[in-house]
């Protein structure tokens, strides 16, 4: 069974914390352990070792063509495996690290496991804003490859329980520091081109990036869901996050959504509704789950994956979800919901 190591990030002395020392020991032995970050839990392994990286892919059931993010605790670690740090990347690092921003650089060959970068000439790097993650990375002294610690295709884990639900017995342990804060993954921004390109919307918003570096583009493949445009982040081409029951996003009034619910229930189906605290009292369905507060989209992001996972613990045949504005962290929320729904949208 997988060890669950509880660490109180506010109370425990983190350097020399025995659980963190144990976890670092496993990492140096090229075993894999799950760790908290400010976005979601990650599944960490030594990024310079093929064996460790192979274990990450195996535990998750992750396709080998989907590269991992390399996590560091200190900017000086970049030099070891990154070819150059362009000016705009420097400014983004100064503004957002540690934090939910992953930057794509050109890679120095021969340092990292080729499997970690899926053989690409670029590498994704981030410094998470979580005291337990940073203490662990310092303790083991290695760059740590860490995808989200879910089974491939499931919603990313925002609690240690989610990690255990997916990976129990498949990994050495999980450092449990309670629920993560941001709730959606880091923003992935490609800085190998003159104008930075968002490959995955996430915890740092497009608006925040633009304040620092001016114009920022969004990979057109992310919004063009019909066409055959290939996303530049290999991971963005996979269906993801989907609950077991089919999920439909509903564009229109709440009355319209309720009518869809009523129709399905008349057919004898059990119906779920994904809404927010403001609107949940208005819906009559078999299961109504409130995902944060619409007035503060950060709370929706924080609750999103737990809510999607909860729909698998209740008995529903179909789920209808409200939609969200795409400003701020709403861009990441809608991106994940569209993936969870397989782009099924019903418009009034
Ligand atoms: O918040 C996060 O970023 C979490 C925590 C654990 O740090 N990690 C995470 O990793 O979400 P993962 O593996 O689930 O997602 C990494 C994404 C994938 O879409 C992958 O294709 C993309 O980053 N990626 C990694 N390296 C890349 C590269 N060199 N070029 C383009 N995309 C890359
Ligand atoms: Mg993931």
TrEMBL record:
Record-listed E.C. numbers: 2.7.7.87
Pfam families: Sua5_C (PF03481), Sua5_yciO_yrdC (PF01300)
Residues binding ATP, per UniProt: 62, 66, 122, 148, 156, 200, 241
Keywords from the UniProt entry: ATP-binding, Cytoplasm, Nucleotide-binding, Nucleotidyltransferase, Transferase, tRNA processing
Location of this chain's protein in the cell: Cytoplasm
InterPro entries attached to this UniProt entry: DHBP_synth_RibB-like_a/b_dom, Sua5-like_dom, Sua5/YwlC_C, Sua5_C, T(6)A37_SUA5, TC-AMP_synthase_SUA5
Principal EC category: transferase
Chief subcellular location: cytoplasm
GO biological process, alphabetically ordered: regulation of translational fidelity; tRNA processing
Keyword Transmembrane: no
Positions that bind L-threonine: 39, 71, 126, 146, 186
GO MF, any single term: L-threonylcarbamoyladenylate synthase
Gene Ontology cellular component list: cytoplasm
YrdC-like domain sequence ranges: 17-204
Catalytic activity entry: L-threonine + hydrogencarbonate + ATP = L-threonylcarbamoyladenylate + diphosphate + H2O
SUPFAM superfamilies for this protein: YrdC/RibB (SSF55821)
Electron transport among keywords: no
PANTHER family given in the database record: SUA5, THREONYLCARBAMOYL-AMP SYNTHASE
Reported function: Required for the formation of a threonylcarbamoyl group on adenosine at position 37 (t(6)A37) in tRNAs that read codons beginning with adenine.
Membership in a protein family: Belongs to the SUA5 family.
Identification of the protein by name: Threonylcarbamoyl-AMP synthase
Species of provenance: Neobacillus mesonae
């Amino acid at each position: 069974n997988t060890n669950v190591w509880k660490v109180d990030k506010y109370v425990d002395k983190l350097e020399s914390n025995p659980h963190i020392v144990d976890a670092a020991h496993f990492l140096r032995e090229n075993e894999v352990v799950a760790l908290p970050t400010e976005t979601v839990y990650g599944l960490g392994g030594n990024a310079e070792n093929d064996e460790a990286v192979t274990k990450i892919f195996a535990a998750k059931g992750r396709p080998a063509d989907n590269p991992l993010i390399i996590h560091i605790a200190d900017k000086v670690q970049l030099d070891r495996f990154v070819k150059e740090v362009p000016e705009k990347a420097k400014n983004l690092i100064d503004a957002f690290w540690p934090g939910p921003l992953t930057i794509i650089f050109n890679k120095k060959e021969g340092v990292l496991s080729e499997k970690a970068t899926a053989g690409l000439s670029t590498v994704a790097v981030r410094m998470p804003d979580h005291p337990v993650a940073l203490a662990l990375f310092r303790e083991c002294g290695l760059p740590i490859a860490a995808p989200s610690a879910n089974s491939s295709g499931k919603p990313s884990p925002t609690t240690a329980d989610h990690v255990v639900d997916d990976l129990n017995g498949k990994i050495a342990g999980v450092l449990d520091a309670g629920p993560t804060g941001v709730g959606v993954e880091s923003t992935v921004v490609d800085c190998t081109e003159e104008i930075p390109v968002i490959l995955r919307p996430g915890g740092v918003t497009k608006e925040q990036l633009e304040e620092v570096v001016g114009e920022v583009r969004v990979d057109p493949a992310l919004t063009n869901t019909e066409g055959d445009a290939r996303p530049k982040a290999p991971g963005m081409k996979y269906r993801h996050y989907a609950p077991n029951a089919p999920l439909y996003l509903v564009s229109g009034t709440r009355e319209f959504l309720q009518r869809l619910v009523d129709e399905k229930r008349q057919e004898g189906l059990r119906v779920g509704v994904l809404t927010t605290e403001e609107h949940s009292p208005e819906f009559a369905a078999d299961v109504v789950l409130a995902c944060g507060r619409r007035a503060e989209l950060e709370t929706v992001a924080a609750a999103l994956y737990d809510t999607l996972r909860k729909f698998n613990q209740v008995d529903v045949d179909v789920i209808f979800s409200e939609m969200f504005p795409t400003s701020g962290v709403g861009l990441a929320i809608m991106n994940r919901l569209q993936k969870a729904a397989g782009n099924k949208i019903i418009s009034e």
